[in-house]
Amino acid sequence: MILLNYPEAFAFAVLSAMAFAVIFQAPKNALPVCGVVGAVGWLVYIHLSQTLGVDSFYANLAASLAVSLLSEINARLWHHPVTVVVIPGLFPIVPGLAMYKGMTQIIEKNYDLGMSLLLQAGMDASAIALGVMAVGSLFRAVKLRQERAGLKRLAKEREEQS
Amino acid sequence: MTADKHYITREQALNVALNIGKVLLKSGAETSRVEDTIMRFCRTFGYHDINVFATPTMIIIGDETAVNASLMCRIRYRSNNLSNVKAINDFSYNIDPPNFNYDEAMAFLRYLLQKCPPYGKWTVCLASAICSAAFASMLGGNSHDFVAAFVTGGLAMTLLRQFDGYSLSAFWENALAGAAIGVLAIMCCAVSVQCTRMNIIVGSLMPFLPGLAFTNGLRDYLSGDLISGNSRIAEALLFAVSIAFGLALTLLLWYRWGWDLWPMGK
Which of A8, A107, A151, B13 lies 20 to 30 angstroms, CA to CA, from B164? Predict the structure, then answer.
């Protein structure tokens, strides 16, 4: 019974992501950013999975793409390292609950239900990991290309000078 | 191609690199970041043939010859400290080889390894309480659930921090946290009828659940670090099992076997 009132959900998600950033000892000036990024990810996830009825794998993928994109943009604009924003930002969407439910079912000997819940949690977590990796690789490829272009230009200038 | 001028010796470079990796792994960074930072550091000083292998419990730095030194270190206790990750990030981006002071760098890294984290014990417990309460509300709890989850999450984290000095294994720490959450959730439900046990438990569990560790393990898999990916995923599953174990034990004791913890006739 997820809260679907978007402003309230945004406020609570900001609180929970910021509190999680404190638990993970994030630097103080990054706390509001972590909160907002986490809240945006949570809103994307619940909008896609509850309101639009999209399959949870794609909802998680979209949410983690949004979170990673925002944290990369933050890293360029305000110089917080990407990890510092991504980790608390992913916290609301990470499937910890599904894993717990799966383990509980297995302890109560409902192995079928337990394994299916655990596999669902695994698929969701891999969607999140895919989203983070995709955006990270994209930005790293662009950065490496810029670095190589800059080095080539430097080498050419040195050749022309000598 | 001009010859790179090494501003520090090979042993010094290896020492600094090893300590950088140690700080990063002890703060919970992912393996690809650790290896990438170490390699970039060595390359900045012109040592292009150094190889590094990192897992969550060990770092080995060396090269492919039998003559030069290679270093390794073991990492036994890992925690999550994003401030250290940021500090190392700033340190490694601001390295200026001509002005690099080896002793200062080693002193800085040693300081990072033993310094107290920026938020103390009580701030973390308060944050855990707020996190639990906010999550319980996000998942549809009412205001009674908010307060109950606040109390449960905060007290569970406080109890966990009390056992910091005893070096319990991670399994028992998490089982203790799960049991504490179960007991407190049952007590809160016994106090107020409008609390939903499921919402309170779910909200309070979120700071302790290893969902993030699981996702980091999958990120390691996708980066090609199979051993670290395997270890992190196994660790995450172990934590999930231990929390479920602690929680299920308490709930079983209360509901199945009728051990009346709070004799209020409920």
Answer: A107
